[in-house]
Amino acid sequence: MKTKFSGMLTLFLAFVVQLSLAQEKTISGTVSDESGLPLPGTTVLIKGTTTGISTDFDGKYSLDVKPGATLVFSFVGYITKEAVVGASNTINVVMQEDATSLEEIVVVAYGTQTKQSIVGSVGIVSEAVIETQQVTSPLRALQGVVPGVSIITAGGQPGSNPEIRIRGFASVNLSQDPLIVVDGAPFNGNLNTISQDQIESVSVLKDAASSALYGSRAAGGVILITTKKGTKNSAPKVTIRSQIGISNPTVGIHNLATPEEFMKLTWQALRNTNQYINSQTPDVAAQNATAGLIDHLGYNPYSVANPIDINGNLVAGANLLWQSDWESKVLREDYLRTNHNISLSGGSDKTTYFMSTDYLDEAGPVVPSDFERISTRLNLTTQVNDWFKVGLNTSFSRSTSNNPDQTSGSTTQAISWIYGLSSIYPIYARDENGALHLDAGGNKIFDTGNGQFSPQPINSTRPVYGGENLLASLTLGKERRVRTNYLANAFAEIKLFEGLKFKTQLSYENYMFDSFSFDDDKIGAASNVKGRVSQERNLTTTLNAIQSLNYTNDFGRHGISIDAIAEAYTQTQDDVLSQGTGFLPGVTNLDGSTTPEAVGGNIISERINSYLGRASYNYDQKYYGEFSVRTDGSTRFSEDTRWGTFLAGGVSWIISNENFLSSSETVNYLKLRGSYGEVGNNRTANLFPYQSVFQTGFVNEGNSGILLEGVSDPNLRWEKVQSLDVGVDFEMFNGFLTGTIDYYNKESVDLILEKPLPRSVGTPRIVTNVGSIRNYGWEFAFNTNNFNTEDFTWTTGVNFSLDNNKFTKLPQEEIINGSKLWKVGNSIFDYFIRDWAGVDPADGRGMWFQDVLDDDGNVIDKVTTKEYADATRYEIGKSSLPDIQGGFTSFLRYKQFDLNLLFNFSVGSYLLDTDYSRLLNPFESPGENAHPDNFKAWQKPGDITNTPLLLASNNDHSSRSTRFLYKNDYLRLKSLTFGYNLPNRTIDRFGISKFRLFLQADNFLTWQSHKGIDPEQSFNGLTAYRSPLSKTITTGLILEF
Amino acid sequence: MKLYKNINRGFLTLIIVASVSFSCSKDFLNEPKNTAGLPEDVVFSDKEIVQSFVSGVYDRYKGQWDDNLTDGVNASNVDTGGLYAMYFARTVKGNDLIQGPSWFLFDYAHENREPGFRRTSFTWTFNYEIINYANVLIRGLENSDLDEATKKEFTAVGKALRAFHYFQLALEFAPNYNNDRNLARIPIYTEPATGASTGNPASPLSDVYDLIISDLKDAVQDLPNERLGKSYINKAVAQGMLARVLLVTQDDWALASQLAKAAYGGNATNAVVSSNWGAGFDDLTDQDWLWGHFQNGTSETNYFWMSPHVMMDHLTLSYQATYVNTNFRDLFADSDKRKLFVDYYEVSTPYREFITTKFEYTFACDVPLMRKSEMVLVDAEAQYHLGNEPEARNLLFALQQDRDPNATMTTASGQALLDEILIERRKELYGELGVEWFDAKRYSLPINRDPEHRVVVNIPADSELLYLKIPQSEIDANPNIDDSINN
């Protein structure tokens, strides 16, 4: 109805105007975006004049124009279009989104800038990029999108937050994480409480110039998340998105031996130990292995007493009584992911609003892991009068997840259990003949392998994981995590006079992490205390106040902008723990506990007080310069070393605005920029790292106890990163090719490191400022606009980075850090391990290389040794850091169909797969699971193989060496979206402005050089029985009206 | 009008600045305090807090040790959890008990002495950590304004702790003291660690033992008999510690006898009476017990960590890992109340023939660290060496007749008498302190394993298998110790 009326009005006006001004004519039309949605608020200007109009709610406009004039259509975030007025009275325009738009407003530290005016290196991820992915933790969307950003998500628990590193590893001991800032305020909650639909853009501040204003915590870079807002003068718009799909583990886990294979392999190991270690004759060794096998394992899944004969084969007539496929019991397939979202946005001429509610329910690969979240947001802004503006951004989120252990490495961690326990051990208790034990009610009883039915000579006591049963702890126990996040961010802006603005912003965040764990009262670790409930409630509150003054003005060709900012930040950690035992069956509340076991808690705060200044200048929008200074006082350092001052500056030159290039057809835009500056890091693990105190909470015979934690350096001071960035941004061939190239060099100095002390001193290390590390590399991003017609669009993009990491100073010449050697010139992640030299065909023993030294310690020869302890650890020239990583994208649209692909890749990193090595010759610890690759083992003198003989006695064959170091290259189709938008003419009839159906697949395909494990493990290249990530295929629809 | 408007804005700005901004003075940053613990000056300002530091050490003894507290990287493990684990690793090295393929299996197989191994690293780091606490205690008291009585008492505690752990280091990381008293393997520290600390060079064993003996003599002198509980060190415990040291040095049997007597109270017949035999060996209140770990099952429990009970008890949920050598079982007369052996599994595997019910595992089990009965046997041994064989026989019999009503006094003499005393030590102390290992080491005896064992390793006298190598982490970080120390 309304549409009709305004249409008539337009017609009427056109008629009147045409009558009165015969030499002008009235042009009208509709401005819409690529998907056919009207674009209200588009500016329509007559070129060369200031005459113009904005499009209305329906994207319509009408304007009196002289024939031959040019109309300029512009809208933030879209490519500006021009149209010459011809014979027709109607000009309809389809605006194209412009990811590289130079006039695009970019969120930067404490404000916004146009993309053109930025002097530093800022990676932008728009809503459009995030939309093509299903990321429960929203920053996973950065992977493969922004060059220089490394992301690893460890383990398949849904909702897991990725580890993010920007431009390498700027710190060693302190947090390397980027600072997360949401709508201008530092964020201390859990990222997975933010739903992806609320995010309008993410800015990644990579260099010093762009991040120095966050100086105190910007060493790992800064990620600014900006949430969506409404648009002024727009009708309420409702968007509904609904997605349902199924997930599966991305990749399978390592292969595992069947019971028969396992029995044969264990027999072989026993025989070898008898024969080669205990010097028994081959016959006796084999007989003893046959006779001792069941005793060794404690369980016999076969129907005969000695199932493996003296030749190592299964005896005839031996029937398998059970087989426990722990993998299929614990890892599931085809689990659900559901996501629904509804949002409402709009605005009057004074007020804008955005409201959103998102519901997500996602299961994970490990039974019964899941993640359920509801998150809501309301963003409101009101222009009270021409000089006073206020706003409130507020959000609430609550998630509940079942969180079975998938990453800790402990006994009841899912993958660890699957790898740790052979399939010969039954899930349910068996008697000595293999028949099921049943309880009084006739139900099966979980087998815990610690003599439940003692004295039962076999099938009662397991040599591994006694007292536990993973399935029992997963199904009878409970591991629940509840995260509640409330965020309020209020601001007021006062325009004091033209160009001078005062802004005050107060943000408060309340993040509550609630964990509840119940260990069963009948089975497992808490069975002899009748069950255990442990509850933890950790409250993190952050209060941040910012006062800022900004003056911006242009004087002729000189543009200046000056900021003066004061900030006060308080973070308080308030933790409570309570634990009790003694529960009746079926009771799982702490109230039901008859024996309190533990209580704990602490309230501790940290504060930062900061003063900041920024001045920027540009001449004729060609030459830009920016300088900033920040001084921070942090409670993490003593009064004497508390304050750190960080300076940064940058310049840029828009060469394409110079006369000699301005008319170039080849180069449409060219910008050179460079920046240098310092940022700091105070993010120590401990809030008072400069004090060593006596910890409380110890107890002996009812008397309270305290103990001294290690020694501390009272003069500890800020760790600093000195960072250089040089970059070029360009656009060529009329927008066909756009790109950015950056070189960076960051040197972290005064590294807060653990300086190793000899253990005999009584404390193994001290945390102090020693050492420097350098990160440097190249980043590239190119986008091409291959086709762009009314019906067909095809764009492609590729981005990648080459990152390097090197120590430049250390407290001592060499520090061995696990499998890595830290020394000047090496990276944090250069492997330093023993070098596998293969298997001696004569005796089947594994060999490693060993340097022979002369009396002066010089290497004079290299030999092989069979003693692992004697083998030399070498710098083998391999690292867990990739040589190159990045991603590529392709977007295709044909009429109403679109297809978006995003790949990410990593090349050149090495993985030390100890998940796999554990499965190779595990027989020294009876009962641990084995890989079928053990059949490749050496059997008799003369065998040529790379797998040493199996032994049931202590040996180092599977110890850390190059034998288990694998190239970990991978390419992953991270997201695939195939969509169909119903044509406007169809949906108009239903009063709908958008109707989209789509299919979305995340992590759908993975190509990897080393199989059996998810390629995303850890930056240091070590494995830890992590469950694989999920690949998810969903179908969804978007409805907008 | 315009002016008015601007003033209005300015006023509003002022109000907002005043109401929202925080006091940006020094106070804002000085207010937060480290609530995670107590600074050193507070600790040494009050006797009660000093006492709690000592209590903390005993918690550490019986805890689930890792070196996170001191910012290290060693993870906690059942076989390296505390003092009890160090002792149990010694226990499984003998012939009398057999460890199944469970925790401590590498100690049992004598495969656990290399510089990179967990055992080596734990035993070294744990003992030195406590030595540093002792040094912090001694120096902190010295620099404090506490009263002299307090200083004297707790300095004595500090010295007892320091000596006890240097003694453990000397036992674990060096061969028999009397074979080469000048051998340098153990660095000595008598000052607290600071950030400037570098590693000291290894000192000759004689220096280490001189420090141990002098510290313990001071402790015996200054420690009171009163204590907060039997998990604390008092005068009697210090006497017992020094008596044990003298069993190793074997150069002052008179003092050994005197100290042992003082520790058990002088009356052997009364001293050996124990309520724990047949009752699970888990009760600290037994008059026989001089010193032990305390657990209450709830707020003070170590869960499934507390050896020997958690390893040796087969009748309850635990590791059920330790078996008894049949031949050891046969040493006991049927009427001996210590003959607590059961053919529980009724299997034919030789090593699994017998288990013992000496130790009953619960979350509340206490663990013996020193008993009067041991001291009576120390006295007997000392009397033997002093040439007083009748008294040695009397003391031995005092214990034997309490344990076995049918016991008769031995008539042996000379080496045979000493052998009987050593056998009695094994029968009385099995599972507790690694008595076979300790005696083999100090008397340079072999440990030969019977064929019944799961892993048969025979240890010749003075074998290097009786001590650990110096950990690689020490060699890497200590400028005064290099790889040659392990040659």
Spatial separation of the terminal alpha carbons of chain A: 15 Å
| Helix content bin of chain A | under 10%
What count of helical segments of chain A does DSSP give? 11
- Strand content bin of chain A: over 45%
The CATH architecture of chain B: Alpha Horseshoe
> What oligomeric state do the depicted chains represent?
heterodimer
Write down the overall geometry of chain B. Answer: globular
The rough form of chain A would be described as globular
**Biggest interface and residues each:** A-B, 99 and 110 residues
Please identify, by name, the CATH architecture of the domain at 2-95 in chain A: Sandwich
DSSP strand (E) fraction of chain B? Answer: 5-15%
Classification by helices and strands of chain B: mainly alpha
Distance between the termini of chain B: 94 Å
Number of helices of chain B: 19
Helix content class of chain B:
40-55%
Task: Give a brief rundown of this model.
The complex is a heterodimer of chains A (1041) and B (487). Helices cover 9% and strands 47% of the residues of chain A. Chain A is mainly beta.
Please describe what this structure looks like.
The complex is a heterodimer of chains A (1041) and B (487). With 1041 residues, chain A is mainly beta. Chain A has a 22-stranded antiparallel beta barrel. A 5-stranded mixed β-sheet of chain A has the order 10-15-16-13-14. In chain A, helix 4 packs across helix 5. Chain A has a domain at 2-95: Sandwich (Immunoglobulin-like). With 487 residues, chain B is mostly helical. Chain B has one domain: Serine Threonine Protein Phosphatase 5, Tetratricopeptide repeat. In chain B, 46% of the residues lie in helices and 6% in strands. Chain B is globular. Chains A and B meet through helix 5, strand 22, strand 23, strand 25 and strand 26 of A and helix 1, helix 2, strand 1, helix 4 and helix 7 of B. Strand 30 of chain A pairs antiparallel with strand 1 of chain B, so a sheet runs across the interface.
